[in-house]
C-alpha cells in the first residue's frame, strides 16, 4: 500500500444530454447516484482491494438504479423485453467474461464476472447464458423488476414514430436513451487495471442485435501494459473502430499518452466514421481521460487526495 | 484493370492436422475443395469484381462442403444442434455484417452479407437473426441438412469423454474439429480489401457460447489502409488478443510489414497467451501471410501469374 497511485473512473452513458432539458432535481439525482457509484468503487481500491472488484461494484450501483440504461433501468426491445449485455476484464491476466442478450438477470455485470471466473469461455449469449447463471445461483429478476414507466413510454413513442415515418426508429433515435450504458475502470494499489461495462441496449431494437458492450476490445478492454477503457455510444461504430483496444494499441505501438490516445479515438477516428459517443479510461500511472463527442456524458472520477469529479454536460 | 495487383487467400481451419492421420484420399478431397474455393474467388477479382464478393463466394464453397466446420459440415453443440457464426467486412467502407448462433441458415456468410447490406446493425444473434433472414428470403436448411455422421460421432465421443473424465470436454479437445472455421481474404483490382469468416463453432459447446468468428477485429477484419485478415483457432484467445485488428494496428502504428505483423500476432502475442490457431491475410500491395502455431492449417492462395498454392501441414 502506501503512496501507490490508484483510482476509479465511471460513466453512466453519453448522448444528447442537454442542460436545457434537465431539471435541477433530475440533475441532483444523477449526481448523487454517480457519486455513490464512485465512492463504492473507490473504497475498495483505497482499502487495497482489486481493481476488478471495484469496477464490478461501481457498475452494480448504476445497474440497481432506474436512472441508467442498464440493469433495472434497461430500455425495452421491440418485443417489450429487456435484453442486456455486459463485459468485465482484468488487465493483469487479460481474463474476461461477457454476456449478451440476457433477459432475466438482475445484475448482468455479476454474471459477466461469473463467466470470467467459472467458465473457460468469454462470451455467453441468450438462454444459454441464463442456464449458466441458474447453475451458479445468480439472482434472476422478472419482467416487473425491469419495468419503468419512463422506458415503456420511450418504446411506445419509438413505435409510434416508426409507424408515422415508416422508418426504423431504432436506427433514427440518437437520444441519450439509445446510448445509455454504464461503465467503470479502475487502477488498484497493486498496479492492476480493470474495466467493466453494462448496457440495456437500444430502445425498440430488433433481430437479436448485439452492440459493443459485450465485446472485448470494442466496448470494454483492460491491459496492465497500457490502460483500462469502457465505452458508451452508438455501438456499431464502436465495433467498427475497435474503440477500446485502439486506445491501448495507440499507447503501446505509437507511444501516445492516455489522453492523446483517447482523444484521437473519440475525436478523430470515431468521429471520422460518423460515430457518436465517449469513453472513460485510466492508465497504470493513474492518469484519467473522459472524452466524448456528444452533447453530454454522465461521468466522474475519484483519485486519492482529490475531491470527486462528477460532470454531465460539456464543461 | 490492367496490371493492378489482386488475389485471394483462404483457410479451412487450423488444428492438430497430422500427416500421419490423413489418408491420401482424404487429403486429395481437401486439396480439391480448397482449390475450387480459391478458383471461384479468384475468377471474381480477376474479372474486375469486388473483393467482398470474392471472399463471400470462396467461403460459400467451403460452407457447402461437409469437409469443413462451417455450413453443412458444422459440428454439433451439446444439445445436438448446429449453431453457426459468420462475419464479412469491406475494407473500403469499413462496413461489416455478422451473425451469431444461427441454427437453420444454409449459408451463414450470405446472411452476414445481408446484415451488412440491409441493416444498420452489424451483429445479429440467434432467433432474431433468423427472423431477419426470413424477412429477406435467405435460404433455410433443416437439421437433416447439417447432419453428417462424422460430426455426430464427434459429439458422442466428446460426451463420453466428458462422462469418463468428469471434465468439460468442449474445453479439453484441441483437435482440428474444434478449431474448424473457414475464411477468405481478397484484394481486388480497384485496390479494395475484404475479409469473410464462417464457423460451425465447437463440438459439444454449451451455454450459447460465442467465439471470435462473428466479432469484427477478433476473427475478421478488413481495412484498405492496411490489410484484410481472417482467423481460425481457439476463439477465446483470438477475442482476448483482438487478433485480426492487431495485425492491422501493428502495420498502421508500428510500420510493420504484413508478414511481420501477422507473425508477431500468431507466434508471439497469441502463443504468449497460450492460444493456438492461425490466420490468413493480404495487404493492399498483394502481399500474403498465412502463419499458424498448430500442427496444420488448411490454406491456400492464388495470385496473378502464379500457380495456386494449397497447403495443409507444416512445410
- Structural class of chain A, by secondary structure, is alpha+beta
Instruction: Supply the number of structural domains of chain A.
Output: 1
The CATH topology assignment of chain A is: Glutamine Phosphoribosylpyrophosphate, subunit 1, domain 1
For the termini of chain A, the CA-CA separation is 34 Å
Unreliable stretches of chain A: 169-177
Approximate helicity band of chain A:
25-40%
Q: Return the CATH architecture of chain A.
A: 4-Layer Sandwich
- Chains forming the largest contact: A-B, 42 and 42 residues
Largest sheet of chain A: 8 strands, mixed
Strand content of chain A: 15-25%
How does the overall form of chain A come out from the CA principal axes? globular
CATH superfamily of chain A: (Glycosyl)asparaginase
The ordered H/E elements of chain A are EHHEEHEHHHHHEEEEEHHHEEEE
Number of helices of chain A: 11
Q: Tell me the Rg of chain A in angstroms.
A: 18 Å
Average pLDDT, all residues of chain A: 91
User: In CATH's first tier, which class of chain A applies?
Assistant: Alpha Beta
Oligomer: homodimer
Question: Could you characterize the architecture of this molecule?
Answer:
- The structure is a homodimer.
- By secondary structure, the first copy, chain A, is an alpha+beta fold.
- Chain A has a single domain, classed as Glutamine Phosphoribosylpyrophosphate, subunit 1, domain 1, CATH 3.60.20.30.
- Helix content of chain A is about 40%, strand content about 25%.
- The first copy, chain A, has helices at about 25-45, 50-65, 110-120, 125-135, 145, 150-165, 170, 175-180, 235-240, 245-255, 260-275; strands at about 5-15, 85-90, 95-100, 125, 180-185, 195-200, 210, 220, 225-235, 275-285, 290, 295-300, 310-315.
- An eight-stranded mixed beta sheet of chain A has the order 4-3-2-6-5-1-12-13.
- The interface of A and B includes residues 120, 126, 128, 239 and 240 of A.
- Strand 7 of chain A pairs antiparallel with strand 4 of chain B.
Amino acid at each position: 500500500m502506501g503512496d501507490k497511485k490508484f483510482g476509479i473512473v465511471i460513466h453512466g452513458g453519453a448522448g444528447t444530454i442537454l442542460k436545457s432539458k434537465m431539471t435541477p432535481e433530475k440533475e441532483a439525482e444523477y449526481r448523487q447516484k454517480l457519486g455513490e457509484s464512485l465512492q463504492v468503487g473507490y473504497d475498495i481500491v483505497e482499502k487495497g482491494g482489486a481493481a476488478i472488484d471495484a469496477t464490478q461494484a461501481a457498475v452494480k450501483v448504476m445497474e440497481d438504479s432506474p436512472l441508467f440504461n442498464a440493469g433495472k433501468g434497461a430500455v425495452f426491445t421491440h418485443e417489450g423485453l429487456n435484453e442486456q449485455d455486459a463485459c468485465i476484464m482484468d488487465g493483469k491476466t487479460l481474463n474476461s467474461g461477457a454476456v449478451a442478450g440476457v433477459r432475466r438477470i438482475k445484475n448482468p455485470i455479476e454474471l459477466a464476472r461469473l463467466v470470467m471466473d467459472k467458465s473457460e469461455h468469454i462470451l455467453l449469449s441468450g438462454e444459454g447464458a441464463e442456464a449458466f447463471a441458474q447453475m451458479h445461483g445468480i439472482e434472476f429478476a422478472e419482467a416487473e423488476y425491469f419495468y419503468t414507466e419512463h422506458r415503456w413510454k420511450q418504446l411506445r413513442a419509438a413505435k409510434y414514430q416508426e409507424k408515422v415515418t415508416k422508418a426504423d426508429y431504432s436506427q433514427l433515435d440518437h437520444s441519450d436513451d439509445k446510448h445509455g450504458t454504464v461503465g467503470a475502470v479502475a487502477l488498484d494499489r497493486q498496479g492492476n487495471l480493470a474495466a467493466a461495462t453494462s448496457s440495456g441496449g437500444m430502445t425498440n431494437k430488433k433481430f437479436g442485435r448485439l452492440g459493443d458492450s459485450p465485446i472485448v476490445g470494442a466496448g470494454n478492454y483492460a491491459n496492465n501494459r497500457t490502460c483500462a477503457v469502457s465505452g458508451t455510444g452508438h455501438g456499431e461504430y464502436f465495433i467498427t473502430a475497435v474503440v477500446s483496444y485502439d486506445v491501448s494499441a495507440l499507447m503501446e505501438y505509437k507511444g501516445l499518452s492516455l489522453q492523446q490516445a483517447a482523444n484521437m479515438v473519440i475525436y478523430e477516428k470515431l468521429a471520422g466514421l460518423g460515430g457518436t459517443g465517449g469513453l472513460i479510461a485510466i492508465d497504470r500511472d493513474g492518469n484519467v481521460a473522459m472524452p466524448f463527442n456528444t452533447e453530454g456524458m454522465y461521468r466522474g472520477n475519484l483519485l486519492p487526495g482529490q475531491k470527486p469529479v462528477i460532470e454531465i454536460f460539456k464543461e
